[in-house]
């Protein structure tokens, strides 16, 4: 209830030199406390005069803070709602991106399959040409089979005693006779390839048979002809080859001067 007017009325007294606690105690101890209290109330009024606007401002700012807090809460709620919507849209976006990637992968797989299919079709087209040529070749082989077999049997039956040059001459003479008799045969016939395969020739070479054409032909005659072959073998290569070839088949070797062989002569 202290007012500014009351403080103004007290100021002349407060400015007096003897208006203090010590002097009041000397005059009357009971009023000394009242003197000190009036000074304190004036000081309180001065302080409170500055504090009251601050309190009012504090109340105002607290009101503003409460309003701002309400707005913040409302904004936070909206933010939470928007965040939930964003999360939902983000999930949809991620699913769409995943589906897009899956479609791209499928498209790439289909593209690879199409390329492979195109390559296969092109390859089959080339194979068709090759099969057509092979079929034509097979037909020619069937037509020429009789003449080829005739040449092969003649080679096995009659060319054994002769060298390479005379064997070739025999084949040329036989082909001339077959042309005159209109017997079809393959013009590029290779009797060695017809009568033995490369794997067998390789095995013969490992067993000691030389790799030249004459030796391979001799090996064919030895293994394919129905007659027992007589080998004229000054270097012993044929003997080594036959021993290695037949060692697992119980081959027995004798000589003209063996005692058991002579006893039967």
TrEMBL record:
<dbReference type="GO" id="GO:0005858">
    <property type="term" value="C:axonemal dynein complex"/>
</dbReference>
<dbReference type="Pfam" id="PF12777">
    <property type="entry name" value="MT"/>
</dbReference>
<feature type="domain" description="Dynein heavy chain ATP-binding dynein motor region">
    <location>
        <begin position="203"/>
        <end position="263"/>
    </location>
</feature>
<dbReference type="Pfam" id="PF12781">
    <property type="entry name" value="AAA_9"/>
</dbReference>
<feature type="domain" description="Dynein heavy chain coiled coil stalk">
    <location>
        <begin position="2"/>
        <end position="174"/>
    </location>
</feature>
<dbReference type="GO" id="GO:0007018">
    <property type="term" value="P:microtubule-based movement"/>
</dbReference>
<dbReference type="InterPro" id="IPR035706">
    <property type="entry name" value="AAA_9"/>
</dbReference>
<dbReference type="InterPro" id="IPR026983">
    <property type="entry name" value="DHC"/>
</dbReference>
<protein>
    <submittedName>
        <fullName>DYH8 protein</fullName>
    </submittedName>
</protein>
<keyword id="KW-0175">Coiled coil</keyword>
<feature type="coiled-coil region">
    <location>
        <begin position="58"/>
        <end position="106"/>
    </location>
</feature>
<dbReference type="GO" id="GO:0051959">
    <property type="term" value="F:dynein light intermediate chain binding"/>
</dbReference>
<dbReference type="InterPro" id="IPR024743">
    <property type="entry name" value="Dynein_HC_stalk"/>
</dbReference>
<dbReference type="InterPro" id="IPR027417">
    <property type="entry name" value="P-loop_NTPase"/>
</dbReference>
<dbReference type="GO" id="GO:0045505">
    <property type="term" value="F:dynein intermediate chain binding"/>
</dbReference>
């Amino acid at each position: 209830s202290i007012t500014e007017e009351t403080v103004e009325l007290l100021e002349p007294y407060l400015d007096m030199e003897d208006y203090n606690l010590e002097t009041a105690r000397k005059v009357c101890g009971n009023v000394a406390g009242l003197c000190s209290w009036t000074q304190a109330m004036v000081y309180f009024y001065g302080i409170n005069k500055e504090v009251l606007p601050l309190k009012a401002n504090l109340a105002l700012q607290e009101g503003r803070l409460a309003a701002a807090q309400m707005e913040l809460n409302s904004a936070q709620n909206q933010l939470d709602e928007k965040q939930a919507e964003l999360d939902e849209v983000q999930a949809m976006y991620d699913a769409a991106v995943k589906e897009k990637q899956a479609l791209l992968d499928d498209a790439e797989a289909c593209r690879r399959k199409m390329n492979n299919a195109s390559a296969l079709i092109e390859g089959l087209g080339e194979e068709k040409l090759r099969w057509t040529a092979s079929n034509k070749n097979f037909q020619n082989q069937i037509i020429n089979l009789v003449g080829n077999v005739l040449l092969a049997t003649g080679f096995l039956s009659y060319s054994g005693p002769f060298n390479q040059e005379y064997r070739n001459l025999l084949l040329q003479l036989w082909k001339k006779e077959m042309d005159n008799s209109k017997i079809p045969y393959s013009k590029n016939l290779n009797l060695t390839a017809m009568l033995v395969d490369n794997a067998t020739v390789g095995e013969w070479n490992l067993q000691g048979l030389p790799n030249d054409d004459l030796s391979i032909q001799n090996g064919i005659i030895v293994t394919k002809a129905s007659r027992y072959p007589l080998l004229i073998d000054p270097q012993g290569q044929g003997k080594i080859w036959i021993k290695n070839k037949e060692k697992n088949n119980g081959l027995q070797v004798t000589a003209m001067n063996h005692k058991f062989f002579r006893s039967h002569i």
